[in-house]
Amino acid sequence: MSAWPAEPAHGAARRVEAAPGLRLAALGERLLPLVLVAPALATVLLFFVYPLSYSIYDAVFEDGRWTWANFEKALALYGPDILLTLATVLLSLALIAVLAVAIGGYLTLGEHPGAVALLRWLYRWPLFIPFIVTAQMMRTFLAKNGMLNHALIGLGLYTPLEAPSLLDWRGVVVAFVWKQTPFVTLLVAGAMASLDRGYVEAARNLGAGRLRILVEILVPLVRQTLFVGLVLSFVIMLSVLSVPMMIVAGQPTLITVDMAFRITAYGDYGVANALGTISYLMTGVVAWLYLRYAVARAGRS
Amino acid sequence: MSARAALAWLPRALLLGLLAFFIFGPLFNMLLWAFAERWYFPHRLPLEFGFDFWARVFAPRSQALQSLATSVWIASLTVLLCTALALPAGYALARLSLPLRSLIMLLFLLPQAFPNLPVYINIARMFYTVGLNGTVLGVVLVHTVHGLVYAVWITTAAFAAVDRELEEAARNMGASRLRTFWTVSLPLAAPGILASAIFVFLESLDEFTGTYFVGVPDVTTLPLLMFTASMGGNYQIASITALILLVPSLLFMLVIERFLRADVLAKVGT
Predict the structure, then answer these.
(1) Region B2-11: what's the mean pLDDT?
(2) Which of B94, B113, B193, B210 counts the most CB atoms within 10 A of its CB?
(3) pLDDT digits (tens, 9 = 90+) for B44-71
(4) Domain membership flag for residue B15
(5) Are A44 and B30 within 8 A, CB to CB?
């Protein structure tokens, strides 16, 4: 429906002449919601949608002409980094999914109230801790002289001289999992808690073990929530600059660092925007998978 | 019985202990660095503890205190701007009939649906041509766009959770729509709106990527200072500034459930 009323019919026009104030009031009534939303909407369009569109345009057009040059250069220079980015983020997502389901499952099915309460208190700590603080913590925790190594040396797993540094893509995975697991767990545990307990009780009465209940009943029922949490985390991990910048020393690194480097070192917007477009494509594929899944699900029910 | 009970507890306790180490280990390691005067490999603990670096961070007119002031100033302006934009939008989305409502809700989600780093690069380029780069206003605008999703969605949910009958009762007693909004809808939605304001404040306080591109070279927020200290190898200063950033985040985690009640949470995104 259009927000603008059509030209008033002949009869209506006469009434309007009689009461112009009323006509204004009616118009105002219809426009009011749009007027209220407009400033917020304009902010998003001007400061997000426009620069987003421009970055794609800038990646494929040079002096108004279509070109693949930026993509060719991006692939030639950063091809391995693109693959490493995808691998790092996907591995993190897999670990986050397993941990979130395990913690959420124990919170829902755990039989010992003390252990459940302790776990509920424990898992949320990283929830609102900023990525940049996470990066700084991991920079010390995973370093050669970090607490992780000292703990492992203390357990006798290796000697101080053999102590490795995890400050490469593995450190990024640890940081991502540490920071994003509580967020996905919060969503998954919430969804599990709001399920009808009847399913669980019925399965239990039939003699199903807890692991089987979790994998065969709870996870399929909360799959959608889990997927939403993972998709949001995927986008967040592809946007974070501080974690790879502070944890990965040198090459190979993630493409967020490469984009920043193209700008700060060369002012090369073309290649940076080509890498940016590649990261949009990655989220695009994930969003498309999600939508296909959601549509298939809607079609079934 | 007690031996068997203890044995039954063992796997549970081991797993919980492992998780606790994984969660608190990094936090504890940073805490050690914040109070370490000297510490190098292969020493397991700092050789000397002390407050020298704290004195440096909190010295009058130190760089850290100046960045903290900049950060708080930017976060406060971001909250003001975000709330000013989200209050009318949230009310309209929750209460008034709006054409293409779900499309508008989705538009507000866009900044969460695409990686924002390449977008920030191009905002910085755009701001550079209009002289907004390196200004507080430029950084506030970037933080506002990022926070607006949460602000609009939570505010919409807060207004949607207000009992319609209370608003109708006020209208029936002759109150105008504006008066009903000020005296009924707004006070009832206030806890949710406050939660969204705290959230936006924290997001702005912690924001790094946007400030890195848009704030350069004149606006130094606390995260930027922390980053510079850390990359320069000054782990003590980096850990102390990280701790300052950490405290509000942890406090918020502990109190969020007071502000964001389940009935509001259930309406987020609908």
Answers:
(1) 76
(2) B210
(3) 778 778 888 888 888 877 888 899 999 9
(4) yes
(5) no
Which one-letter DSSP state was computed for residue A61?
Answer: E
Cβ A147 vs Cβ B28: under 8 Å: yes
Distance CA A123, CA A118 (A): 9
Q: Which residues of A touch B122 (CB under 8 A)?
A: 51-52, 54-55, 58, 269, 273
Does the structure show a pLDDT above 90 at A22? no
Within an 8 Å CB–CB cutoff, is residue A118 touching chain B? yes
- Give the model's pLDDT for residue B263: 66
CA angle A140, A144, A147 (to 5 degrees): 55
pTM (predicted TM-score): 0.88
Contacts of B43 in chain A (CB under 8 A): 145
- DSSP class of B59: S
Residues B146 and B206 in one domain: yes
Q: What angle do CA B22, B24, B29 make, to 5 degrees?
A: 100
- Write down the residue that tokens 């429906």 correspond to: A1
Are residues A129 and B19, on separate chains, in Cβ contact within 8 Å?
Answer: no
Both B123 and B208 in one domain: the answer is yes
Q: Which of B201, B180, B78, B59 is nearest to B139 (CA)?
A: B78
Mutation target for B interface from A88, A136, A241: give the one with most B CBs within 10 A: A136
B35 and B68 co-located in one domain = no
Residue B36, phi then psi, degrees to nearest 5: -85, 130
B25, B104, B230 ranked by CB distance to A139: nearest: B230
* The domain defined by A68-300 carries CATH number 1.10.3720.10: yes
B250 found inside a domain? yes
ipTM of the complex: 0.87
User: How many percent of chain A have pLDDT more than 70?
Assistant: 92
Nearest by CB to residue B115, choosing from A122, A141, A283, is: A283
Quote the minimal CA–CA distance from B180 to chain A in Å.
16
Quick: pLDDT tens for A165-208: 888 999 999 999 999 999 999 989 988 988 888 888 888 888 88
Residue of B nearest to A4 (CA): B99
The answer to whether B88 contacts chain A (CB < 8 Å) is yes
**What's the alpha-carbon Rg for chain A, to the nearest Å?**
27
State yes or no: cis peptide before B42, omega within 30 of 0.
Answer: yes
**Cβ partners under 8 Å of residue A195, min gap 6:** A108, A218, A221, A222
The residue assigned the tokens 């969660």 is B23
